[in-house]
Amino acid sequence: MTPKTIDLIGVPMDSGKRRQGCLMGPDALRTAGLHTALSDLGHSVTDTGNVTPAAFTETTGTHLHALQETIAWTAALSDRAEAVTPNTIPIFMGGDHALALGTVRGMTNAAAKANRPLFVLWLDAHTDYHTPATTASGNLHGTPMGYVTGREGFDGFPPVPNPVRHENIAMLGLRSVDAEERAAIEETDVTYVDMRHIDEHGIAKPLAAFLDRVAKAGGLLHVSLDVDFLDPSVAPAVDTTVPGGATIREAHLVMEMICDSSLMSSLDIVELNPFLDERGRTAQLMVDLTASAFGRRVFDRPTRAY
Q1: What is the residue range of 258's domain?
Q2: pTM over 0.85, yes/no
Q3: Range of weakest confidence among 50-64, 87-101, 148-162
Q4: Which one is catalytic: 7, 69, 82, 97?
Q5: CB 241, CB 196: distance < 8 Å
């Protein structure tokens, strides 16, 4: 494959939920050898260090956890994502999934400047389609897709001038969706693929159809990979464990297909909590999956004439 220019961007963000530990995620991915894994594939890789939010004063008297901190992170990450050099693929090393409030917003602005549509592939057990008003837990890592699609109720957050079109979103691996989210998302054109569908039909067909739509539209593709997309038996280092997730081979197939498409323009790696890991195996798996998305293969399969 053609060598890529990749920026590794650390996001030690831990404000999206109450259980702490995701702030260690970026360093766990570094320690597991993400830079080396990508460089060994021939890519030009730079680690630009960690993003930090502007100063904030936390509010009280709200059911929302760390609201002002999350707003500060959203603004900082949006600016960082929008400022990525053209033809460079940023990998945002999280950090909890609330980081996508900023990374996706920033990429929507960058796509609008390039006059191209942004598509989002959401690899997650959850839709994260809540708003601050509908989240019962008050954990804002459950709201990014609501925010970037332009749902109301995000008072205090940066406005979203270029919301992601619902038909430009595919969610794969769903298996834990609140009733409010399900009712709301069923009224949209989001492509949502739960684990039953994957069990019955496989993961390749819906992904291939989505990637084909991205290609035909000349779109940019943001991939947001949550550790809980995977089954916790193979990826235990996550707060929101939901049994029955994707297998290692299903996850690698997704990443290999993304690589084959040459469409991915940005990537989140989120919800890695090293405090919950077992000898670093989840961090290593996330590195291996990322390497698959950038060309690592057991065998290449050249087209032959018979």
Answers
A1: 5-293
A2: yes
A3: 50-64
A4: 97
A5: no
